[in-house]
Design a protein that fits this description.
Number of domains: 2
Bound molecules: protoporphyrin IX containing FE
Mean pLDDT: 87
Largest sheet: 5 strands, antiparallel
Radius of gyration: 22 Å
Structural class: alpha+beta
Shape: globular
Strand content: 15-25%
Order of helices and strands: EHHEHHHHEEEHHEEHEHEEEH
Length: 439
């Protein structure tokens, strides 16, 4: 059955077009009153249909030459999502997702490799650290938002993101570009090497291929991961330069910036302009297995019906903090707080975000079988978001194909250039689901 675009919140699909975004984290202090308020508030939420209209308008104006590359249109969009704790207050206890019920703190800190001391207090809760305090989050794009506090809700804190120049993330790569197309919603791509389209139930609850046991009211919703990921940019530049200097220095003793850029792109898995290493391999790599180390990519760029799309996610993150200045780069020390407010949607947290972080990025043996090309050497961790336990030097490595001969690997020690500072899992309900929540 076709998906009802008026029932799905717009950030899940197609996306909310944004230049800035504020995430307001709130606590429900009076459930009965909140239900009344939410019922009225839902008319302000942006549906997939509304978001499509904004995107079409942008595209129309661009085609007509009314909108230059740096011009923006005046559009506001709002989405709302509830944590497991918030839904419990609305008497919706079981979403059919154990990771959601557990909450991100338990999953990623208590049972994971996020470090307790690095998580910001507001994500941990006030009294009991096992329980995150925020009950729901409202995402407002391009905010001109004034809201009178109501006794049904207490505003806890906000996180603000702003799109950087050239739509890059802070390390300088174009980001949130490679998104799986969703069958039944997106038109098939004519691009030869676009990621393969995935079945809608991988992102949207109750749609084709969602195999989990979710309650009926959750249909057309999606689980949203919010994760504050600090990026240490000057430190990362220093680390990459020191690590690859021996390979990237010519006979005259000069550092070859092109070589350095190629090796750092192997760490990210993409060239800076987002072209994948599969699409445009380095001259040496054509004869070899692709030299990408990105571990959150487990597809082969060919559409086929047997594709295992179980672990696909759509990403909707936005950077926070100022762009890195030359003085910071030269000093090698971050002087400003910056990073990515990572956001992803999926219908199953265990298969989606959690799998990518814990089973792919944090596992030195993923992708399985890659060691065959390299005499048994394992790929190691994801150099950007891979995590290891404090003091575990044995697992802190990645094997990077050498520049002069990618059949040979260089084992490098990783630096913690992305720090998980907190987050939570939320459920972005459909409009019909919100009606149910308000009963
Ligand atoms: C600060 C943290 C992060 C940074 C700087 C970052 C950066 C990037 C960049 C530059 C790309 C390539 C451009 C694109 O395809 O959009 C990318 C792709 C991707 N990232 Fe991240 N990322 C971060 C965190 C994460 C996390 C936490 C996950 C999931 C656990 C993740 C999953 C993905 C996926 C699935 C892709 C697409 C892979 C593909 O289609 O080839 N990223 N990321």
């Amino acid at each position: 059955m076709a998906l009802d675009q008026k029932n799905i919140q717009g950030d899940i699909w197609p996306r909310l077009p944004k230049k800035s975004e504020i995430f307001l984290f709130c606590e429900i202090t009076n459930s009965a009153k909140f239900k009344e308020k939410l019922s009225g508030f839902s008319k302000h939420l942006t549906s997939a249909h509304d978001a499509q209209q904004i995107l079409s308008e942008i595209s129309r104006r661009k085609t007509n030459g009314e909108l230059g590359p740096d011009d923006i249109i005046d559009a506001m969009a709002v989405n709302l999502a509830c944590s497991a704790k918030g839904l419990k207050k609305l008497e919706k206890e079981d979403q059919g997702d154990d990771v959601f019920r557990k909450g991100m703190y338990n999953d990623m800190v208590v049972e994971g490799l996020d470090r307790e001391a690095e998580w910001h207090g507001e994500f941990k809760g006030r009294v009991v650290t096992e329980e995150a305090v925020q009950d729901f989050v409202i995402k407002v794009l391009n905010p001109t938002f004034k809201n009178a506090p109501d006794r049904s809700v207490k505003y806890m804190f906000a996180q603000t993101g702003v799109v950087l120049q050239h739509e890059c993330e802070h390390f300088g790569w174009a980001d949130v570009v490679s998104q799986p197309l969703i069958k039944g919603l997106d038109k098939p791509s004519s691009e030869k090497l676009a990621p393969p389209p995935v079945k809608p139930g991988i992102m949207i609850v109750g749609a084709e291929a969602d195999t989990a046991n979710h309650p009926a009211w959750a249909k057309d919703g999606s689980f949203m991961v919010f994760r504050r990921s600090k990026q240490l940019v000057p430190e990362s530049i220093q680390w990459v330069t020191e690590t690859f200097k021996p390979q990237a220095t010519n006979e005259k003793g000069e550092l070859m910036m092109g070589a350095l850029s190629c090796l750092s792109s192997r760490l990210m898995g993409r060239w800076r302009d987002v072209v994948s290493l599969e699409q445009k391999p380095h001259a040496y790599d054509v004869m070899n297995d692709v030299a990408t180390l990105m571990k959150s990519n487990d597809f082969d760029f060919k559409d086929n019906d047997d594709l295992d799309d179980t672990h696909a996610i759509v990403r909707r993150g936005i950077p926070y903090g100022p762009q890195t200045q030359r003085t910071e780069t030269l000093s090698g020390i971050s002087m400003h707080d910056r990073g990515l407010l990572f956001v992803s949607y999926q219908s199953n947290l265990r298969h989606g975000f959690r799998y990518m972080q814990k089973e792919w990025s944090n596992k030195f043996s993923h992708p399985a079988g890659k060691d065959k090309n390299y005499g048994g050497a394992q790929p190691g961790l994801d150099p950007i978001i891979g995590q290891w336990a404090e003091g575990d030097e044995e697992n802190n490595y990645a094997n990077v194909p050498r520049l002069d001969d990618p059949r040979k690997l260089e084992k490098i020690k990783l630096e913690r250039i992305v720090i998980a500072e907190g987050g939570e899992c939320f459920f972005t309900s459909s409009f019909s689901g919100i009606k149910d929540l308000c009963k």
